[in-house]
Amino acid sequence: MGCPAPKVTNGGSGSALMKTPELAAKIIEAARQATQLPLSVKMRIGWDEKSINVLPFSKMAEEEGADYITVHGRTRAQHYSGKANWEVIARVKRERKIPVIANGDVFSWADAKALLELSGCDGIAIGRGALGNPWIFREIKQGLAGRDPLPAVPLEIQELCLRHARLMAEWKGEDRAVIEMRKHFAWYLKGLRGAAQVRSRINTMDSLIEVENTIREYFQSLSDHD
User: Fold this and answer.
1) What pTM, to 2 d.p., does this model score?
2) Which of 50, 129, 145, 171 has a CA positioned 20 to 30 A from the CA of residue 138?
3) Which residues are catalytic?
């Protein structure tokens, strides 16, 4: 009940259900009756700034039997623009008895720490912050343990780029994998020296072996300049 994509909300699903809480309640009730497994509900803070209704909506989810809820701190109208409203998430946490998971704008251990401290939530959910940086989970785990988070080193990034590409090819075939991996390479290489140039080269390639060789050469060039 948190997805803002038009192809979902145009049919009344996703975050559009925040405009029809009676229907949302029936859905949660039916899900609760259908399983004894843990039941979670994800939501936004409202449809738009004029209809922020996450407090009553989250209460309804709790009353209908949700075991925990996840709150993304934006309205549907915002999509992913602007800032997530962590203060509203904190209000939800204060009013609910079930666990509340905070979501929105967590791109580092520092973000996670700040959100947990401000909201008092039971956990955090990470989405876009993991794109190109799956090591964020390791960094947060280290931070929570009181250790200095260790960012990924170039060799780790290289090996994951290659592994991701191979797995994508096994799943979707080489032609599709080469195309779909372009956006992933952009995320993985973000912030590295010369990344724009190597991304431009990869975007013209249609062979997996050519892409793999280019990735290896690129990371070797980074090593040679260190």
Assistant:
1) 0.90
2) 171
3) 3
